[in-house]
Amino acid sequence: MAKIIDGKKISTEIKEELKEQVAKLHEDGIEVTLAVIQVGNDPASTVYVGNKKKACAYIGIHSLAYELPEDVTEQELLDLVRELNAKPEVNGILVQLPLPEHIDEDLVIRTIDPDKDVDGFHPQSVGRLSIGLPGFVSCTPAGIIELLKRSEITIDGKECVIIGRSNIVGKPMGMLLLRENGTVTICHSHTPDLKATAKRADILVVAIGKAKFVNREYVKEGAAVIDVGMDRDENGKLCGDVDFEDVKEIAGAITPVPGGVGPMTIAMLMHNCVQSALDQNR
């Protein structure tokens, strides 16, 4: 039976550590500030933004909320981003995705000052990661590394397989595992014999957006299985990309959904905000 990796508990530990750091910064007269921009009122985005605001309040980070109408023009959004770039008191800028179809997401991300890109999506942030320079790392992959380390799961020298090659999870996950000296394979829809490749993994990360896709046939006995999926099963219940009940019987460690990777994403966003304030006040 697998050890359950408790993302809620580990994210709380990180937030407590950040709370202490923020309190010390306050003593030095430095306030950490995150600006969050939401366009429209997509229900999932509203929940995410609400959770980010709660985390800021808990840690002591000042949050600025900009709630723009669905029909805001691209130019108006870009002007707001540039205005926040120019404000020295703003340490981090986050534009909640997805954006309405009439707005170029890529252009908006590229307009954010890389030194305030706490989501880690700017091409400069991605470039820094790929060549091993310090910079902001996409929050979900960074959170997964923390989950593994704080659960005492060794990455160095291990066979790591990622199913999914998105810019937000799959690709940066591969680079972070490489940075920790893992041997990395990234799989996708064109990978032949996916089961055989996945079954080699000591650490298996699944991020494909298909409910309960990965069962025990994909998993090596004793492997650590990290489920990034946020799906709904046939009954409308929240589940992951991994069939948790089936896989937990043979895995060595596994993240649940909910309560695994999700809380870590917000914890690492808060970490990036605090890091940004530290860097900007050196």
Question: How much is the radius of gyration in Å?
Answer: 19 Å
CATH superfamily of the largest domain: NAD(P)-binding Rossmann-like Domain
H and E order: EHEHEHEHHHEHEHEEEEHEH
Structural class: alpha/beta
Tell me roughly what share of residues is in helical segments.
Answer: 40-55%
**Biggest sheet character:** 6 strands, parallel
Termini separation: 48 Å
How many helices? The count is 10
CATH hierarchy: architecture of the largest domain: 3-Layer(aba) Sandwich
3D shape: globular
Oligomer: single chain
What name does the CATH topology of the largest domain carry? Answer: Rossmann fold
Low-confidence stretches: none
- Total domain units: 2
Topology:
Blueprint: E1 3-4, H1 7-27, E2 33-39, H2 43-59, E3 62-68, H3 74-85, E4 92-95, H4 105-111, H5 123-130, H6 139-150, E5 159-163, H7 170-179, E6 183-187, H8 194-198, E7 203-206, E8 224-227, E9 231-232, E10 238-239, H9 244-247, E11 253-254, H10 261-280
Parallel strand pairs: 1-11, 2-3, 2-4, 5-6, 5-7, 7-8, 8-11
Antiparallel strand pairs: 9-10
